[in-house]
Design a protein that fits this description.
Number of helices: 7
Strand content: 15-25%
Shape: globular
Helix content: 25-40%
Radius of gyration: 17 Å
Largest sheet: 7 strands, mixed
Oligomer: single chain
Order of helices and strands: EEHEHEHHEEEHHHEE
Number of domains: 1
Length: 219
Amino acid sequence: MKILNLYAGIGGNRKLWGNENEITAIEWEPEIARLYSKFFPNDKVLIEDAHAYLLNYFREYDFIWASPPCPSHSRVRMNSTYSAETGEPIKTPVYPDMRLYEEIILLDYFFKGKFVVENVISFYEPLIKPYIVGSHYFWANFPLANFETKPRLHDYPIPELERRKGFDLSNEDIPLDLKRKVLHNCVEPEVGKAIFNYAFKGKQELLNNNEVVDTNTAP
């Protein structure tokens, strides 16, 4: 099976997929792409614009996972745009990046395989109804249950983030803020595995309160 992993980061969603499939990962930042290649040497990694690549090559794949940039949709940014004390603006508002919905619509209407698009829960009512998994939205063209995941880590030490996500960056000579960024942006590997299994096996397996939970109920 040919898989396309868009906005791949260091591969949190892909970590537990195994190596039985032909996986192409698209990542724009060279240093992050290098880390992905280190963790997944069997994958083909391309440093390209994921949004443009999707439009040009989506027909070549059987399964597509996309995690487009989330900051412009995030409740965190919305909540930090205005001062809680004075109500005055402290950040300049930005347009939500509508490429998120462009990709969902493209895949939903034109893609013949299975797909999932992941993003944070937005500060506005989503324009296309998603599934809710923990603190994230997921859009997919296969039934997906709304299930709970382990609580998200905020401001944890980097070693704890590494343990939680299963990526050791301790020997990487990269800035600490980049380490924290890529670890925070990782989809929980168990969630990535659960959704992948659900797409092709009709089954979900994820860690919930440190236990494996099976759920097959669509919303």
